[in-house]
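tl;dr need the bound structure. longer version: we got a ligand (D-mannonic acid) that a collaborator sent over and nobodys looked at where it sits. i said id run it. heres the input, straight from their email, havent touched it
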Amino acid sequence: MERLSPATLATLPPSVARPAGARPAGPRIVHLGLGAFARAHLAAYTQEANAKAGTTWQIVGVSLQRPDMRDALKPQGGLYTLVTRAPEGPIFELLDVVTDVLVAPENPAAVVDILADAATRIVTLTVTEKGYCHLPATGRLNLEHPDIGHDLAHPETPRSAPGFLVAGLAKRRALGLPPFTLLSCDNLPSNGRVLHGLVLEFAAKLDHALAAWIEETASFPCCMVDRIVPATTASDIAETAAAIGLHDASPVMSEPFRQWAIEDHFISGRPAWEMAGAEMVAEVAPYEFMKLRMLNGAHSSLAYLGYLAGHETVADATADPLIAAFLERLWAEIIPTVPAPPGVDLADYARRLLERFRNPAIRHRTWQIAMDGSQKLPQRLLGTLRWRLERGHPCPAILLGIAGWMRYAAGQDERGEAIDVRDPLAARFAAIASAAGDDPAALVDGFMRIESIFGGDLPARDDLRRALTASLGTLLSHGAHETLAHFLNWSPNAGASNQRSGA
Ligand code: CS2
């Protein structure tokens, strides 16, 4: 079968939506961490904004680690298929807004050059939580991170996202160019402010005048991004080929829903993303709390408990009545902690989340979401937990989610088989698990000592330790299914006085 590329484009069936006309080189967005999510979110919004506003914004992707994305997209001239998987059936659409992909480790100087090029106006990032190389508990740069150490010693050939951003900004300043807007699109609370702090901290370590220039001239708007985009599988590739009649090595699979709330503070222009449905808002925080706590908090909880209960995907897990009922209880605990964004009914938002999770056309693996729990737990579950503990409100469902993470991170599933735990702290988890064996109190103690996750305050609460030990003990001795059944029977009123939790 022929490869999708500008040369074979004419053979696409009319059912595949595609942009009209050629692609003149317009203002540029450089995107760090070009994965499936950004290709289904940022790129889709940008293409639609271009079409509606008659603009020519282009995206150059940068892979900070592997060459796979460049190898897949380069022979296709950057073209790829966005497959929107509605329960009623897929929609195939061609995206042509990515014009090039650079592989940073192969040629870091080329990445710095494009960041410093006059046509680059915005640098967007989806480098995942760990890509910020920071200490989530303090928001400061992790100076022990090997890439940060390297980049401070070799600032012109960086490896990390903060290192590249500062190198690009330094070069622009040397060339007499204005900076770019830095837009983090990762699931971090106050993502723009976190990025601002990290970039300034890194720059100040090299050159105070540079840091001052960045502070005065660059902008770091916050935004909340949302679209469920699971990793593409071999069968997705085969299905796409059958539908479009060409081989696309890297289509992206997405749910129909998408949302993007952005602080409108761009120093050198931006695509008219609002014409594609983005919400330009004065304050992103309420959107962020809603999304991180309600969507991602539920996603992570169901990833751990669902995985342990033997469910491969989110849709399978949500089809399990016990997990669906657990989610309702979890949302009842989360909702009071979230300030509703203007015009949003949070109970309604929760109902829509359940529908989105149930979409059987999306095969989002629980194992994929379970990754990097050490980087995700604080903003997804622990903020909610703190909020409730401070007010003396019970939180048994949140505790069960956290206990599920501990059970998972200990590395053995319910049949005694090893779990492939992917996390920057995986080695530490393994050491905790081997020291604690299956003693729940020792496991809770070991995990709670990880300060970058739990901070100093949570481990000091004996009531919390006891409650987590009880939940984890039940998970260890009875398994996720029975634990959930017991949990749901035992405390029938959502969020109400659950004695067992004690917290
Ligand atoms: C998921 C997110 O992988 C994960 O941890 O929770 O990627 C989630 O699908 C997105 O944030 C949805 O917008």
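gonna send this back to them w/ a short note. DSSP finds 20 helices and 13 strands in the chain.
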